[in-house]
Amino acid sequence: MDPKASHGVMMMIFMASLVWMKCSAAPMECHFNSQALCEYDGKQYSMGESWMEQGCVQCTCLHPVGVGCCETVHRPVDFPPWCEVRVESLTCQVTLVMTSDPRQRCIPGEENNIDPRHGALNMKLG
What we know:
Layout: H1 3-23, E1 30-33, E2 39-40, E3 43-44, E4 50-53, E5 57-61, E6 67-71, E7 83-88, E8 93-98
Antiparallel strand pairs: 1-6, 2-3, 4-5, 5-6, 7-8
């Protein structure tokens, strides 16, 4: 297979993986940069090699056509407005925490996670 065809096949595989990841249940951000070099943190990478960048982003060298990168974390999308998503950058661990007190975990559906804007009333509708 000539080099141009080989690069075309690699590009199609990468684009197909982006589509698959976008269509899966957990949203993940991906991007492709045709101007990027296969280099990170002073190290050179060759065709097909991958590395992990800050922010839980995995990149793959598609030399000479560029670099493709995708988030590796699955962020929740359906949670109460008084909760927020936190991503631990070293471990890439995702947790839901209370917006008012990020030290407390937010577990939707549990009694201790009543909307804090309701104060002490926290009345249940019958």
